[in-house]
Amino acid sequence: MTKRAPWPMVVPSGTTIVGTARVRDDARPAMTTAQRRIYELTGNPPQTSALDDPPDPFEPSQHGGITTAHIAPAKRPAKYRNTRCEHNGIKFDSQKERSRWFHLIQLQVAGAICDLQLQVSFVLTERRQRDDGTWERASKYVADFVYVDVASGKQVVEDVKSTATRKNRTYIQKRKQMLDKHGITVKEI
Q1: Is residue 33 in some structural domain?
Q2: Which of 35, 36, 137, 150 is most exposed by smallest CB count within 10 Å?
Q3: Angle at the Cα of 19 (from 18 to 20), degrees rounded to 5?
Q4: How far is it between the farthest Cα atoms of the chain?
């Protein structure tokens, strides 16, 4: 194997073969009649690549305008059209969830509820080892809010759901497993 030449490779003019490669000449073939007529109408020479085209005089980058390099790609909207938000360092999946958090804080201050918690995880199925030796991950349900109702003394598990997210198959399955395994009915807000 031969040693490669450093890049950029400089080939002296008049050289026709470098190694096993044939060097192309810069001369372009003559234009056909159709190509000549197109050239006369548009002013664009035929058989040129897009890189060889003259610069566009109306391109915004030459006039200090915004170029496509400065434009951020468009963000895809959320699947359920929710808007993620934050308050005092707490991140919420939707504005509806945040407003429910504010309401629950007011109820706790008033004494109607106590032990308010946010994003509580419940294990639905334990981690198990398969026959082939690999491990199956544990299945968890993460509730939006968990608190104790002072009047009844019962623990309440709440999840903020829209009409569309209430129909999510994964959510429905986990809601049923919460009732079966823990005996907890998830309250949908």
Answers
A1: no
A2: 137
A3: 105
A4: 97
Residues 116 and 104: beta-carbon distance below 8 Å? yes
Question: What helix, strand, coil percent values describe the chain, rounded to 5?
Answer: 25, 25, 50
How many distinct structural domains can be found in the chain? Answer: 1
| Separation CA 15–CA 9 (nearest Å) | 13
Note whether residue 113 is domain-resident. yes
> pLDDT tier at 145 (50, 70, 90 boundaries)?
very high
Tokens of 157: 């598990």
Q: What is the pTM of this model?
A: 0.59
The whole-number average pLDDT for the span 1-5 is: 63
153: in domain: yes
Is residue 125 one of the residues assigned to a domain? yes
**Binning pLDDT at 50, 70 and 90, where does residue 2 land?**
low
- What is the spatial distance between Cα 98 and Cα 87, in angstroms, rounded to a whole number? 8
The predicted pLDDT at position 35 comes to 81
* Torsion on CA atoms 107, 109, 113, 118, rounded to nearest 10: 80
Give the integer Cα–Cα distance in Å for 187 and 34. 75
Structural domain including 137 reads 96-188
Whether 82 contacts 92, CB under 8 Å: no
